[in-house]
Amino acid sequence: MKTERLAYGLRVLFVGFNPSLRSHELGFNYAGRSNRFYTILYQSGLTTRLFTPQESSLLLQEYGYGFTNIVARPTRRADELSREEYREGAVLLRAKIEAYRPMIACLVGKGVAQAFFGKAIRAFGFLESQADGCTHYFVAPATSGLVRMKLAEQVAVYRALAEEVAHCPWPMREIRGEGR
C-alpha cells in the first residue's frame, strides 16, 4: 500500500528512509511497533494529542504535515537499501520538493539528509545554507526503535522544529488567496 501523502502548501514534509514492511502492508506512515514517531510529535508539541499510525492521514488535514521517503521500496531495515536506490531517490525527492514546495522538509535521520545532499551531516536542526528560497531543511533523528538515542533527546530536537512550525501560517491556500 502507498504511504506517501503529499499536497501543495504543506507546513512540514516528513521524509523517511523508506517504508517499513509493516507500514507498507498497512498503508500507514511510521507503523512499526517500536517506532516512536507519533510519541515524539506529541511530546515535542508538533501535535496537540497522541496520534496513531492509522490516523497519519489526519496529520495532513489537521496540521499540514505530509509524508514521503527518499526510497519507495519497503524493507525490514534501511540498511538493505543500495547506494543507487538512494541516489535515484534523492533525484525524485528533489523533484517532489520543487513541485510541492513545503515550508519545511524534515529529513528524518542523518542518513536521509546525507543521501539527499550527498555529504555527511553532523548535527540535527535547520540547515541554513540549504534553504532554496522556499523550502527550509531540518534534520531530525530517525524515530525507529533501532535508534539508540533516548526518547527525551529525540523530543528535544523535534521541539526546535515545533517552535518554528508554530510560526508557519497554514493553510497556505488561504494565504495565497485561493480559499479552501
Describe this structure as you would to a colleague.
The protein is of the alpha/beta class and 180 residues long. The chain has one domain: Uracil-DNA glycosylase-like domain (Uracil-DNA Glycosylase, subunit E, 3-Layer(aba) Sandwich). The protein contains seven helices and five strands; from the N terminus they run βαααβαβαββαα. A five-stranded mixed β-sheet has the order 2-1-3-5-4, sandwiched between helices. The radius of gyration is 15 Å and the shape is globular.
Summarize the structure in short.
It contains seven helices and five strands.
Core attributes:
Uracil-DNA Glycosylase, subunit E; five-stranded mixed beta sheet; 180 residues; alpha/beta; disordered C terminus
What is the helix tally?
7
Largest sheet: 5 strands, mixed
- Assembly of the depicted chains: single chain
Structural class: alpha/beta
How big is the Rg? 15 Å
CATH architecture: 3-Layer(aba) Sandwich
Give the termini distance in whole angstroms.
28 Å
In total, the number of domains comes to: 1
Please report the total strand number as a whole number. Answer: 5
- What is the string of SSEs from the N terminus onward? EHHHEHEHEEHH
Low-confidence stretches: 173-180
CATH superfamily label: Uracil-DNA glycosylase-like domain
Strand portion: 5-15%
* Fraction of residues in H or I helices: 25-40%
CATH fold-level name: Uracil-DNA Glycosylase, subunit E
